[in-house]
């Protein structure tokens, strides 16, 4: 039984994925998918690459997730799953790329500048 691993990132979230043949069970940090992501929208985001290829019930997925918020984590996990599926079967890459699952979202938080309270926010200007 072959285990394929992949990495996905989004903002500050990092997802390490281990995919093996199985029954479709997704375990995140030793918890079930529905328990970790109670929102059905986030569960849908995580399963998008699997549903696109029609292999949702074919693989067991173990995940180590850390950092970021729940939206960033779900999108990092989606990227990691897509990368793992491509490692298993290279012909799937075109279908996943067409849906945008293979692209790493480069946006992250802009750094805070000195002399300002936030990245772009300035202190209130006083003329007198």
TrEMBL record:
What are the alphabetically sorted keywords of the record?
Ribonucleoprotein, Ribosomal protein
Per UniProt, the ranges with Basic and acidic residues bias are: 104-113
Question: Where is there biased composition of kind Basic residues?
Answer: 114-128
Tell me the first and last residues of the signal peptide: none
Q: Is ATP-binding among the key words of this record? A: no
Annotated GO CC locations:
cytosolic small ribosomal subunit
> Cross-referenced InterPro entries, in alphabetical order?
Ribosomal_Su5_D2-typ_SF, Ribosomal_uS9, Ribosomal_uS9_bac/plastid, Ribosomal_uS9_CS, Ribsml_uS5_D2-typ_fold_subgr
Q: For this chain's UniProt record, which GO biological process terms are given?
A: translation
Region Disordered: which residues?
A: 104-128
**GO function terms (MF aspect):** RNA binding; structural constituent of ribosome
Regarding protein family, the annotation reads:
Belongs to the universal ribosomal protein uS9 family.
NCBIfam families in the record, alphabetically?
Answer: PRK00132.1 (NF001099)
Q: What is the official name of this protein in its record?
A: Small ribosomal subunit protein uS9
* Phylogenetic classification of the source organism: Bacteria, Pseudomonadati, Bacteroidota, Bacteroidia, Bacteroidales
């Amino acid at each position: 039984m072959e285990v394929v691993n992949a990495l996905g990132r989004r903002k500050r979230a990092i997802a390490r994925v281990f995919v093996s043949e199985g029954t479709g069970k997704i375990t995140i940090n030793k918890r079930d998918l529905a328990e970790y992501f109670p929102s059905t929208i986030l569960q849908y985001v995580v399963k998008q690459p699997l549903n696109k290829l029609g292999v949702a019930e074919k693989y067991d997925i173990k995940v180590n997730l850390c950092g970021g918020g729940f939206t960033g984590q779900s999108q990092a996990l989606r990227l990691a799953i897509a990368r793992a599926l491509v490692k298993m079967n290279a012909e799937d890459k075109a279908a996943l790329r067409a849906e945008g699952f293979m692209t790493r979202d480069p946006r992250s938080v802009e750094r805070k500048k000195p002399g300002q309270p936030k990245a772009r926010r300035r202190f209130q200007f006083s003329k007198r």
